[in-house]
Amino acid sequence: MKTIKPAILGTLMVPAFMFAAGSVNAEESTTTMEATYLTETPENTFHADALTGNQVKSSVEDDEDIGTITDLVIGEDGQINAVVVGVGGFLGMGEKNVAIEWDSLELTKNEDGDDYVITVNASEDALEAAEEYNRNEDKDK
């Protein structure tokens, strides 16, 4: 009988511990954080539209325009992973998208300090030869 008692006691204790652990987790997950708000653009930040629509210049081709930023790839942590650049084509026709990793770009301010100048260490031919970037939802179509 002595061996049955610890087994029964153990069986009864497991649900009790599971209930207690579940209660703690339930309390932690219901805590909400109140929203905070901005009234001005923080220093050393910029808006997405400061990049989208801008030309990307080649640092190996005398700062020639080699494409236009059409989109940003942003991680769940809020960090920009890459910019999507439309290259090739004429007046938007025949253009393909190439994703360039964020760390491959150099952002500087123009002479007026108003806009960003975006350069990459690649030629237009290199971007046109690069593999096309496809958004995940485009793969399902």
TrEMBL record:
<keyword id="KW-0732">Signal</keyword>
<dbReference type="Pfam" id="PF05239">
    <property type="entry name" value="PRC"/>
</dbReference>
<feature type="signal peptide">
    <location>
        <begin position="1"/>
        <end position="26"/>
    </location>
</feature>
<feature type="domain" description="PRC-barrel">
    <location>
        <begin position="61"/>
        <end position="123"/>
    </location>
</feature>
<dbReference type="InterPro" id="IPR027275">
    <property type="entry name" value="PRC-brl_dom"/>
</dbReference>
<protein>
    <submittedName>
        <fullName>PRC-barrel domain-containing protein</fullName>
    </submittedName>
</protein>
<dbReference type="InterPro" id="IPR011033">
    <property type="entry name" value="PRC_barrel-like_sf"/>
</dbReference>
